[in-house]
Specification:
21% strand; 2 domains
């Protein structure tokens, strides 16, 4: 996050980010991601991993009332909820079930023979797969227009309608101001209905940083809005993967391209906005000392640090933390310490069980 304003008034912002792995979200998974109707109490009081700060920031933080509230009082609702998603396109199973049921009824009434049904399914599967691949590789879609969300079949896929509906149902006191898809990256910004009248100048742009700077399997979305003449920008990004120094440099270059491509006028948003937030799957790794150059040793060392919850040591080895400190990426931005286990290559089960062949990060 980067701030270029000393405005003392409070605006409570919740930023949620997830790499969905191209899996269809459910009511339960969205409930884990977003507290019901933006209830801040659930985030501040019930999190198993409280927000941590570096020691040098403790004095400053102690003077700030959490979310602008007195200790012990309710935190109320967040004013803005931002949801950034990566690998967030999927073949909608819930829609498939409805279509399958309809076809079964038609077949039982003699309207479709078995061969006709089979041929129809093959054609439909081929078209759906091709369309999804196209949308996930190069296409950008803005699902907001004057008057609200558009759900026209030609502009919004089944997956988009499902995601939009799940989040809308989870946040009944909010209005979407941005719902944007770029490749397989999504950015949604919701504002509390009570302050919607203060929102104006909403813009949204996207940048591809995949192969040839054309494919949108990697890239970012930049959304800017103004509330009472305060410009706020939200960026969600999916940067280059893999370990190694060259990949680290490419991630930094990806981020620079996203800032450049998201310009609203002469300057990039980190300068033109009063507050800028970045979230997403940034893919920064843990950079170990040379003594742990062997991947097996690095993985073993990481698990040792996790076992004793040595978050400070893990944060010190974080590429993003190091890059910010050396002014190699997102100059002027700050990031909170991560006081929780790495979330990369975790088995899809409760808790933090890591895949044995990969180093957690």
């Amino acid at each position: 996050m980067k701030t270029t304003s000393n405005n003392a008034s409070h605006l409570r912002v919740l930023i949620c980010t997830i790499n969905a792995g191209n899996a269809e979200p459910s009511v339960d998974s969205i409930a884990v991601l977003i507290p019901y109707d933006g209830c801040a109490d659930n985030v501040v009081k019930e999190t198993p991993y409280p927000i941590g700060f570096h020691q040098r920031e403790q004095k400053m933080v102690s003077k700030i009332k959490p979310l602008g509230r007195k200790p012990g009082s309710s935190f109320g609702r967040f004013d803005i909820i931002v949801v950034g998603m990566q690998e967030a396109t999927f073949k909608a199973k819930s829609v498939e079930k409805v279509e399958t049921k309809c076809e079964e009824l038609n077949s039982s009434n003699g309207l479709l023979s078995d061969s006709e049904k089979s041929n129809k399914n093959i054609v439909k599967e081929t078209i759906a797969s091709a369309h999804l691949s196209y949308r996930s590789s190069i296409k950008s879609e803005n699902f907001m227009r004057k008057g609200g969300f558009t759900s026209k079949a030609e502009s919004a896929g089944d997956d988009t309608r499902i995601v939009h509906r799940l989040i809308a149902d989870r946040c009944p006191s909010y209005v979407f101001v941005t719902d944007y898809l770029h490749g397989a990256i999504r950015l949604m910004v919701l504002v509390k209905k009570k302050i919607m009248r203060f929102v104006d100048h909403v813009t949204c742009k996207s940048v591809s940083t995949g192969i040839g700077s054309v494919l949108a399997n990697k890239g970012g979305i930049v959304a800017t809005l103004s509330i009472k003449k305060t410009h706020i920008t939200f960026i969600t990004a999916h940067l280059e993967a893999h370990e190694g120094y060259n990949h680290y440099l490419n991630r930094n270059a990806n981020m620079a391209s996203i800032l450049e491509g998201g310009k609203d006028g002469k300057y990039d948003v980190s300068i033109s906005s009063h507050h800028t937030f970045v979230c997403g799957d940034l893919n920064y790794r843990l950079k170990f000392p040379s003594v742990f150059a062997d991947p097996e040793l690095a993985g073993h060392r990481t698990k040792e640090l996790l076992k004793i919850k040595n978050w400070c040591a893990l944060n010190d080895m974080d590429e993003l933390h190091q890059g910010l400190k050396r002014n190699e990426v997102l100059v002027g931005f700050k990031t909170l310490a991560c006081n929780f286990p790495p979330t990369f290559k975790v088995k899809r089960e409760n808790g933090y069980e890591y895949l044995s062949q990969r180093t957690p990060r």
